[in-house]
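Retry 2 of 3 after timeout on previous attempt. Resubmitting structure tokens to design endpoint.
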């Protein structure tokens, strides 16, 4: 768990369904916030990436729910990144309860694309700067 990026969240009313349980769509919002926060921690904001014409869209999601989170509960997202096939970034995230139990597991597949006014194209050869950012994500936080 040492090389995992961490993000602490509190389940608010806006995150829950009518029963006060963390709504399935909120998990996706938390996952995105965790990825953006990790980028910030390596010193490269997502807006800066976008200004350079790059985006990192989600291309696949696998989310397994194990134990519900309820309104007011604390959630710890523990994420680990892996650069695969030179162009695919995988983010494995655990949603942890305060006692350490796993509430959910997610595997997110991402790619880097170049966005212009005319098109969006998969980047098959990552620029050194972008590759270094992804490798820093893979290394995990400096403790």
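Retry 2 succeeded. Sequence:
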């Amino acid at each position: 768990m040492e090389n995992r990026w961490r993000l602490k969240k509190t389940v608010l009313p806006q995150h829950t369904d009518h029963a006060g349980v963390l709504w399935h769509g909120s998990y996706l919002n938390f996952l995105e916030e965790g990825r953006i926060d990790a980028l910030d921690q390596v010193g490269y904001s997502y807006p800066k990436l976008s200004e350079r014409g790059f985006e990192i869209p989600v291309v696949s999601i696998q989310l397994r729910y194990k134990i519900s989170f309820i309104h007011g509960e604390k959630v710890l997202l523990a994420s680990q990144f892996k650069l695969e096939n030179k162009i695919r970034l995988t983010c494995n995230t655990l949603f942890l309860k305060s006692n350490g139990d796993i509430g959910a597991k997610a595997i997110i597949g991402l790619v880097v694309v170049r966005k212009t006014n005319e098109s969006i194209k998969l980047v098959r050869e990552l620029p050194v700067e972008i590759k270094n950012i992804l490798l820093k994500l893979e290394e995990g936080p400096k403790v």
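Attempt log closed. The mean pLDDT is 95.
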